[in-house]
């Protein structure tokens, strides 16, 4: 014979968030009279230490054995109060939260009378459910100590190294032929003017040499199943057409290859061959054949690379290589897929793609770089002459509601433009550099000081968005803008114009999101679980995200996030087991007829019909089940139910909607 | 220093086309793309939006500032914030007209319309050109009908209270 439950109702003021609208004392007096309630109390902040103690003391005194907290959303403090119950020796699932803030006081701010009545309704419904709650035990599953990192830019490299140094085995998957990402293309980094390669290359080599990191370059993730702690990932390894173990990266094949195409690494400012080593510091430092341009793949002839490699080098060329799929078992996944630079061709008023001397800032970066196609000499693409006047156009493709543009600020463009302006001034003191901007955002540590430095160098800052760029008869680029601070319309000729193009989600982001079942924001970047409190978590347990995959970021923030994602993955996996909420579907095997309808409707593949004792029954993988309840609705015999949300419990809540 | 009315922007924003006025972040794209601004230093679509947001109503509505716009829509096409400066200016003109502040040049055109049914006089030279091109003489204007339409449209009343906005 079950004892009559003794429910305690604890009503939070949440400062004035709730009490400023809802008459909490009236709710308390109402709750006291509800069936099963033995005590009701109010407190300014129930989540505070004294607030928690209020509940704890009542439990420990044996006064209550069920707890209802009427406060904020369970998303915020359900874990907090469950812990209070546990600490007081009560099963943490004998708890129900009544959301009288998000669902009541915040949305009915101007109707305090009705809000108070609604708060009473919400509490009454929670109490009705609390009467029927039963104890539940958390589920534990084992967790693997391998982690998959997707993306080999500075974010992926940092996360991989942190994890591997902590003793976790890391699989680093990179789509391109080398790790390094965009940072490898940069000459210097703001605001310290560190040489980008000098600080990146050692980390790339560390990745290659680390015994706990396995590198898969020229590879893509193509499949995922499983759950936090036990994912199975399928990775497609695309062919290099070069034997990675034999190739020494001598570059002889490259010298002999007759085909030249624009270099991706040099952002089109230089050329590469059809067989090429992506850049001098590439990891792995091997040659790769681009089958879209190689004469062998196009016309079945040439093969000069194979010939020279066979005769004079390692004999590493292998035209017969095929794509290969492999499977990896991992406990957690870190998404670090980065960004793409906005292509300003659509902005016809700027002439990008029409005028050779209008380039993007990434292209300027390759011109500034000592390892770039000009050896660090900045020259006009059209005639290779040294420019005397350079203009920067800010916010290209960003901060704009025009079609094809991004409404957000790309965050890094102000700083990289200032950085390049300083570099140009330091290389060529007589050069004139002019930055056309809408607002300058120099928010980081040492950034405003960096802006001073540019001003001291005599860089001109003109507050006005550029309207149009055209080529004069003399072949110079005329920029028209309003200097909004003086109201003057300027039409000024320049030798080169650099477009500070914004950041976009990397190509393939959408497909990867669909594959990993993690959502994207309206901006097309991966969505974090909470913008402030869970910035590197996703809504899927065990999948983390960092760097520019979640939106524009500079290297400083990217590295911080990568380290955070690595630490979060470690926190999840370090104990070797993961505790999963028991609020999942459970099967009453006596009633189950094994019809398999639940298996059909399960979105997560958590249910399978198996043979047990000579008959078919449904079985739930508790680590995969999200407790959505679709199976429960579909079950013809009522055999499958979601714990904590059993039909009886849900109906009690619905029944309590009207007093 | 004239008084600024912070509520003025709300009134402007209610006029269809001008809803996004307060999104203006003063980038100056409109001015940079404006064919009038290149020739007249007083005319800056950006400044018009600024004055409207701040509520310098008198400064905007008197004088010929609003009436310089050609309505080419260059600014509207290029505005990154979707402010539609052409339509903001149009909205401000409507407010000016409501208050009886019509630019003398425009007033003259309207008066001609009321008097003759045409905004421009058909000169003898134009008639000769028409004849040369084999066109019939310009048709007579049914003046009474035109006046009736203009009257119903409220133009007569507007002209009645018009004081003339600024100096031509």
Description:
The complex is a heterodimer of chains A (659) and B (168). Chain A is an alpha/beta fold and 659 residues long. In chain A, a hairpin with a 4-residue loop joins strand 8 and strand 9. Chain A is globular. With 168 residues, chain B is mostly helical. Chain B has two domains: 8-98, Alpha-helical ferredoxin (Fumarate Reductase Iron-sulfur Protein, Chain B, domain 2, Orthogonal Bundle), CATH 1.10.1060; 104-161, no CATH class. Helices cover 49% and strands 0% of the residues of chain B. The two termini of chain B are 23 Å apart. Classes of the chains: A alpha/beta (659), B mainly alpha (168). Chains A and B meet through strand 24 and strand 25 of A and helix 2 of B.
Tally of alpha and pi helices of chain B:
10
CATH class of the largest domain in chain A: Alpha Beta
* Rg of chain B computed from alpha carbons, rounded to a whole number of angstroms: 19 Å
Oligomer: heterodimer
Give the helix proportion of chain A (percent range): 25-40%
Relevant CATH superfamily of the largest domain in chain B? Alpha-helical ferredoxin
Determine the fraction of residues in helical runs of chain B and give it as a percent range: 40-55%
Mean pLDDT across the residues of chain B is: 90
Question: What proportion of the residues of chain A form beta strands (DSSP E)?
Answer: 15-25%
Into how many domains do the coordinates of chain B divide?
Answer: 2
User: Per CATH, what is the topology of the largest domain in chain B?
Assistant: Fumarate Reductase Iron-sulfur Protein, Chain B, domain 2
Largest sheet of chain A: 5 strands, parallel
SSE arrangement of chain B, N to C:
HHHHHHHHHH
